[in-house]
Design a protein that fits this description.
single chain; 139 residues; Double Stranded RNA Binding Domain; 2 domains; 3-stranded antiparallel beta sheet; disordered N terminus
């Protein structure tokens, strides 16, 4: 996708049939360059999406070509957000925790977790749960 969006065959897709201003495109390019691209190979063809904007996807014959196509699509999506006055997602690598998960616990479970957190030197239960969960998911 270039600075001009192409018409989609999906009736619900929004299209932009004009160029973005050079200022918006410059800002969008800077932001999109910081986003992470996730690639996958299926039946000899590469597919990719943005981590921060998972609905922004592209494909290609090579990993590099796919990554470039995803980056271009991310730039267009960010430009659209900027033009609308919306704030694009913060790049994941910045470490800004903007996502929230709610967990329901029994009173006994909460007490057990708070005791474990204190034993491990954590002041707050949230930091303890996040640390333990992230460590468990990376092993």
């Amino acid at each position: 996708m270039s600075a001009k969006s192409k018409k989609s065959s999906t009736a619900t897709a929004r299209t932009i049939d004009r160029s973005f201003s050079s200022k918006i495109m410059g800002n969008a390019r800077q932001i999109a360059e910081q986003y992470q691209v996730i690639l996958g190979l299926d039946a000899g063809h590469w597919y990719g999406r943005g981590l921060e904007l998972p609905d922004v996807m592209a494909d290609g014959r090579t990993a590099d070509g796919c990554a470039r196509a995803v980056r271009e699509a991310l730039t267009g999506a960010v430009a659209y957000l900027l033009e609308r006055g919306d704030r694009p997602p913060t790049p994941a690598r910045s470490g800004n925790r903007s996502q929230q998960v709610n967990v329901r616990l029994t009173t006994e479970e909460k007490l057990l977790l708070e005791q474990a957190a204190r034993r491990k030197g954590f002041v707050g239960l949230s930091d303890f749960i996040r640390t333990v969960a992230v460590e468990a998911s990376t092993t």
